[in-house]
């Protein structure tokens, strides 16, 4: 069961997608629900195979995890973690994650560490990019431009972000989509 809070947070991610205006209004709720279900399904598969510990899962998947002290903030954009495909690796930005941990310590004592949440989130991207199906953003596209026989499309990158949050939420047993962690820093 997906909580109303999780749905609202996930829908907010879709609204921030650069292609949001091109998504038919009648399709938006279904896309959010599909992405949430995809994340939860993948979390169940991973949990059954390797357990709940994100560090252990990364190790079992052969994905190096790099804890970076330099940060990757770009103006008003804060980057907590990144997944790279070639070579596969996850980079966690300690300074940004520490800010989330400080908020969690005040507002949600006993919650999983932000590091584990962001690592789990990035593990979804690994599963999404290396699984048997095409990556989630590539499976759901919107039309940007049509010129005669030519049709230019773009994927909805927010769907993978929604699913990655649902993956982390389910894997770690969080009460709500971890998008709330990022939003807590804006207050």
Give structural attributes.
alpha+beta; two-stranded antiparallel ribbon; 15% strand; 8 helices; 187 residues; 56% helix; three-stranded mixed beta sheet
- Mean pLDDT comes to 91
Q: Helix coverage percent of residues?
A: 55-70%
Low-confidence segments, ≥5 residues, pLDDT <50? none
Computed over alpha carbons, the radius of gyration is 17 Å
Number of domains: 1
Write the H/E string, N to C: HHHEEEHHHEEHH
**Number of helical stretches of at least 4 residues:** 8
- What is the end-to-end distance? 28 Å
Give the DSSP E fraction (strand runs of 2 or more residues): 5-15%
**Total E-strand runs:** 5
What is the SS-derived class? alpha+beta
User: Spatial order of the strands in the main sheet?
Assistant: 1-3-2
Shape: globular
Question: Main beta sheet, described?
Answer: 3 strands, mixed
Task: Explain how this protein is built.
The protein is of the alpha+beta class. The chain has one domain (4-186). Helices cover 56% and strands 15% of the residues. It has eight helices and five strands. It has a three-stranded mixed sheet. Helix 2 (25-50) packs across helix 7 (157-172), helix 4 (94-107) packs across helix 8 (179-186) and helix 5 (114-130) crosses helix 7. The model has no long low-confidence stretch (mean pLDDT 91).
């Amino acid at each position: 069961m997906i909580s109303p809070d999780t749905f609202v947070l996930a829908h907010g991610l879709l609204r921030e997608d650069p292609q949001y205006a091109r998504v038919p209004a009648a399709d938006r709720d279904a896309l959010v629900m599909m992405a949430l279900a995809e994340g939860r399904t993948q979390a169940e598969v991973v949990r059954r195979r390797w357990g709940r510990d994100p560090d252990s899962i990364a190790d079992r998947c052969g994905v190096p995890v790099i804890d970076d002290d330099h940060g990757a903030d770009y103006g008003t954009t804060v980057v907590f973690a990144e997944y790279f495909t070639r070579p596969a690796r996850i980079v966690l930005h300690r300074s940004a994650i520490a800010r989330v941990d400080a908020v969690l310590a005040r507002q949600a004592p006993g919650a999983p560490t932000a590091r584990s949440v962001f690592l789990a989130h990035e593990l979804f991207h690994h599963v999404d990019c290396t699984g048997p199906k095409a990556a989630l953003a590539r499976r759901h596209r919107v039309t940007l431009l049509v010129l005669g026989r030519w049709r230019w499309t773009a994927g909805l990158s927010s769907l993978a972000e929604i699913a990655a949050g649902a993956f982390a939420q389910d894997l770690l047993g969080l009460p709500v989509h971890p998008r709330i962690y990022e939003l807590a820093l804006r207050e």
